[in-house]
C-alpha cells in the first residue's frame, strides 16, 4: 500500500500596514483579539487582563503580514514501511522523564529566570540528541528583542540538492504561564511540555533510526507563545522576508489531556491550511490508533496562526477536550496521558517522513 496525497497552494502576496509607534504607545504592544480591526495598543497590565480571561490574542507589534504567499506544492507519500519502522522506536519513559523535569521548573514564563533556565535546559537536550546523527544537523538559539527567552531550532538538512531548500516544520511552544500572574508557579505539563516533547521525541526517533530526508526538516520550540505568539511570529516574519519555501508546518500544543472514551485527535479547521489538514487526516488514518474529529479553535489560539498570518501552510492537531487546568497551578504531569501523547508522536513522525520524502509525480 502506498500513501498518496496531492495538493496545490496558489495565492498572491499583498501587504498591510501596521500602526506606527508614537509617544503615547511607547512601551505598549499592539494586540489583536480578532481577525477584524487593526488592533489596540496595550500595556502589560492590559495584556494580563486578556490572559486572565483566557482570551486568544496575537501580538502584532512590528509585524507586517502578507495576506497570502505564492507557491505550488505537490506532495506524494512514500511506502509506510519506513514510517512504521520508526514508530517502533518511540519511548514513553523517555518522554515522561523530559516532561517531569520541564514541568518542575517554577514556571517557564518568558521574562522569568526559570523561563530562561528551562529554555537553556531544553537546548541542552536537543544538542545532546543531535550528537549521534549520521546526517547533517544544526542546533541553534533564536534570540528575540522582546524577551530574554530564546527559541530553539534543530535543522536536519535534506540530502537532495534540489529539494533541500524546501522546508518541513514541526513546532511547539516551550513557555508556560499562570493566568494569576507572572510570579506564580506554572508547571505547564500539558501546556506545553507535552507538545515540546512530541517535537523532541520525533527528532530523537529520526536520529536513532538513521533517517536522512530529501527535504530539510526543522524542529522548532518557540519562546513567548503565551503572550501573543511572539516567538513564532518573529521566526515566521524572518522566513517570509527571506522567502523560505515552507512546504508544510504542524504545531503541537496541548496534546496531553485525555478524556476517557474519547480516542480522537482534534483537527482545528480555522486559521490553518485545508490542504495540510487533509494530509493530517490521512496520516492519522494510516499511522494512529486514535481517529480524528474537526474542531474550531478561534483567532490566535496557538503558534500555527503565526505561520498562517505570513502565508505559510500550517496546521494544528491537539487534544480533543480542553484541559480544565490550563494556565493554572494544576497543569501537572499526573493529568498527562502518555498513550495519547504517543499518538501525537506517531502523527508527527508520519508528517516528517511523508512530507520530506516526496515521490516522483
TrEMBL record:
Presence of keyword Protease: yes
Cofactor(s) of this protein: Zn(2+)
Listed GO MF terms: aminopeptidase activity; metal ion binding; metalloexopeptidase activity
All residue ranges annotated as the Peptidase M28 domain in the record: 152-349
Coiled-coil region: none
UniProt xrefs under InterPro entries: M28_fam, Peptidase_M28
Signal peptide (UniProt feature, chain positions): 1-16
Record key words, sorted: Aminopeptidase, Hydrolase, Metal-binding, Protease, Signal, Zinc
Transmembrane segments: none
GO biological process, one term: proteolysis
Pfam families to which the protein is assigned, alphabetical: Peptidase_M28 (PF04389)
Family classification: Belongs to the peptidase M28 family. M28E subfamily.
Protein name listed in UniProt: Leucine aminopeptidase 1
Lineage of origin: Eukaryota, Metazoa, Ecdysozoa, Arthropoda, Hexapoda
Amino acid at each position: 500500500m502506498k500513501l498518496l496525497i496531492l495538493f496545490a497552494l496558489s495565492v498572491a502576496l499583498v501587504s498591510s500596514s501596521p500602526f506606527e509607534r508614537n509617544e503615547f504607545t511607547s512601551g505598549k504592544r499592539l494586540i489583536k483579539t480578532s481577525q477584524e480591526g487593526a488592533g489596540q495598543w496595550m500595556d502589560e497590565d492590559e495584556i494580563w487582563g486578556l490572559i486572565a480571561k483566557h482570551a486568544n490574542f496575537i501580538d502584532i507589534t512590528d509585524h507586517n503580514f502578507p495576506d497570502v504567499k505564492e507557491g505550488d506544492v505537490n506532495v506524494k507519500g512514500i511506502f509506510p514501511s519506513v514510517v512504521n519502522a520508526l514508530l517502533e522506536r518511540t519511548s514513553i519513559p523517555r518522554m515522561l522523564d523530559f516532561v517531569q523535569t520541564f514541568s518542575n521548573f517554577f514556571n517557564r514564563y518568558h521574562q522569568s529566570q526559570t523561563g530562561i533556565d528551562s529554555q537553556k535546559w531544553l537546548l541542552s537536550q536537543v544538542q545532546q540528541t543531535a550528537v549521534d546523527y549520521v546526517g547533517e544537523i544544526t542546533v541553534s538559539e533564536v534570540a528575540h528583542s522582546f524577551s530574554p527567552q530564546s527559541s530553539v531550532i534543530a535543522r536536519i538538512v535534506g540530502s537532495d540538492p534540489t529539494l533541500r531548500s524546501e522546508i518541513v516544520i514541526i513546532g511547539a511552544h516551550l513557555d508556560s504561564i499562570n493566568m494569576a500572574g507572572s510570579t506564580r508557579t506554572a508547571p505547564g505539563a500539558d501546556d506545553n511540555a507535552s507538545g515540546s516533547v512530541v517535537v523532541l521525541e520525533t527528532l530523537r526517533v529520526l536520529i536513532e533510526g538513521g533517517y536522512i530526508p530529501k527535504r530539510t526538516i526543522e524542529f522548532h520550540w518557540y519562546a513567548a507563545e503565551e503572550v501573543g505568539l511572539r516567538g513564532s511570529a518573529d521566526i515566521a516574519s524572518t522566513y517570509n522576508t527571506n522567502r523560505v519555501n515552507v512546504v508544510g508546518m504542524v504545531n503541537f500544543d496541548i496534546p496531553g489531556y485525555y478524556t476517557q472514551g474519547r480516542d480522537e485527535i482534534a483537527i482545528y479547521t480555522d486559521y490553518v491550511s485545508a490542504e495540510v489538514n487533509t494530509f493530517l487526516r490521512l496520516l492519522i488514518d494510516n499511522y494512529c490508533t486514535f481517529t480524528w474529529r474537526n474542531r474550531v479553535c478561534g483567532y490566535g489560539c496557538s503558534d500555527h496562526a503565526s505561520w498562517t498570518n505570513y502565508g505559510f501552510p500550517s496546521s494544528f492537531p491537539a487534544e480533543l477536550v480542553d484541559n480544565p487546568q490550563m494556565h493554572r497551578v494544576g497543569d501537572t504531569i499526573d493529568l498527562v496521558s502518555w498513550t495519547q501523547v504517543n499518538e501525537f508522536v506517531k502523527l508527527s513522525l508520519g508528517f516528517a517522513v511523508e512530507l520530506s520524502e516526496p515521490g516522483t509525480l
